[in-house]
Every structure is written in C-alpha cells, then in structure tokens.
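quick one before i forget lol
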Amino acid sequence: MPLADLHARIKSFGGIGDRLCQSLTDYLLQLGMARDRVPRITVSDLAYSTQRDPYSGEISLHGEWRDAGGMLCGSLDYRGDGTFYLEHDVLQPHPTDRRWIIEAITAWGTVENLKLEPRLMAALAE
C-alpha cells in the first residue's frame, strides 16, 4: 500500500479510534477498576502498518501499542468495512473478584455495535 493510502486510512480511523479507546477506558472503570490502574490506551500511541488478511485478501490498518521497553502490549486491526478487533494488556487484579486477574481487554465489531470483554486468568492462591 502506498504511503499516501496508509496516511489516508490512519486519518479516517482517527475519530473512530478515539471513541473506541474511550469506550475501553469507560468499560474498565465500570468494572470497578481504579482510574490509576487503567492502562493508557490512545490512538496517538499506535505505530501503524498495513496487513493483508490471509482469508479475504483485504488490506487492513494494523496498529501496535508498545511499552517504553519496546514490548508489545496491544494491537488493533481496522478493516475497510469499518470493523475492527482490538486487544490490549491490562494485567491488573480484578476489582471485584480477587480470584482473577484481568490479563487483557478485547473489543471487536464496530463503534456502533461494540463488543467488549475482559480476558481473565486465575490469580495465584494466597
């Protein structure tokens, strides 16, 4: 994909991405997570590229979040039809059930039909 097309796709995603990231933050707060425990999830922190879907052949906008050390901590795939799949590390104790850790949050669908789900893993027994 030419660089101009990549920039156009990033620009078209901007407003959608901002709403999506705010929805992720709101969801974690609704679960009861303290604001200072919610990871910073913003589109301005994404490093973009394009990827070809192996099934459909469609070119998707792909973004990755990395921490200060360069480790991958989240990714987003935004398709031409307006659907997306997003995953971002949370790695915090579940705010209401200490048997669990929220490993990550996943989101998929469209902004108008957003599906959100925490990915849980068992906490270590005390």
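fyi Residues 3-30 form the longest helix (28 residues).
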